[in-house]
Design goal:
The chain has no helices and 17 strands. It has 226 residues and is an all-beta fold.
């Protein structure tokens, strides 16, 4: 295990290097073994690889992302270029540098009325698995990555909750809670659910108010065989 020191680790997203609280990154390798009769050895092993990055930022640190569903065979524009340069102790580890990572989810939260808002961003990208030889079949990157219809919700009285809902088809629910004790304070909030047209740009400071939002952004890899 290599220790990473946060104060000397840098993150760059679309040229921005400030306002980041935490980052996680991984290379998820998915082997699919083709088992055969009469042998403990697989006939072949199909291997795919997905890069994943999750970033927590102070609200407003990253630019707003528009979520326009794909209407043709063209790559989604809901992407960001991400690089990570780890500052290590007791070992070394290579950095992470990938352009055009597809946004998969977004969240905004400001739980404390006198606190600050923060945003969470998750990204993914399908890449070549890099394996070779007669026993492996490598799945390369898709020909296109399409963006579907994004859905999400928002609640609270913060000026900008970081999620823009399409006015068509918005429905409203309600949630509340309170506990015994002194003073036994609780709260009730209405929740709006709908189709999300953009995410990002939530309020960092909004004294006396709180709220939260989330969005799921579906991306579909498309293999045309060409």
């Amino acid at each position: 295990m290599t220790i990473i020191i946060g104060s000397i680790t840098t993150v760059n997203v679309d040229g921005n290097q400030s306002g980041f609280q935490s980052v996680q990154w991984s290379q998820q390798v998915q082997p699919n073994r083709l088992w055969q009769l009469g042998s403990w050895s697989p006939y072949k092993t199909l291997v795919t690889k997905i890069l994943q990055v999750s970033i927590t930022t102070y609200a407003g640190a990253l630019n707003v992302v528009s979520l326009t569903p794909s209407s043709s065979c063209s790559d989604s524009n809901a992407t960001k270029d991400i690089s990570i340069s780890p500052g290590t102790c007791g070992g070394s580890v290579g950095g992470f540098n990938e352009n055009g990572m597809y946004l998969s989810s977004y969240g905004y939260s400001k739980d404390d009325p006198i606190g600050f808002g923060q945003e969470s961003w998750s990204f993914q990208k399908w890449v070549d698995s890099g394996v070779g030889g007669t026993d492996f079949i490598s799945v390369g990157p898709p020909n296109f990555v399409l963006l579907g219809i994004s859905e999400g919700s928002k609640s609270g009285n913060v000026a900008n909750l970081g999620v823009t809902l399409d006015n068509t088809g918005v429905v409203t629910g309600i949630q509340g809670s309170v506990s015994a004790g002194f003073p036994g304070v609780g709260s009730v909030d209405s929740i709006e659910y709908g189709i999300v047209t953009s995410v990002g740009g939530g309020s960092l400071e909004d004294s006396g108010n709180n709220g939260k939002s989330d969005a799921s952004i579906p991306h579909q890899p498309l293999y045309t065989g060409n």
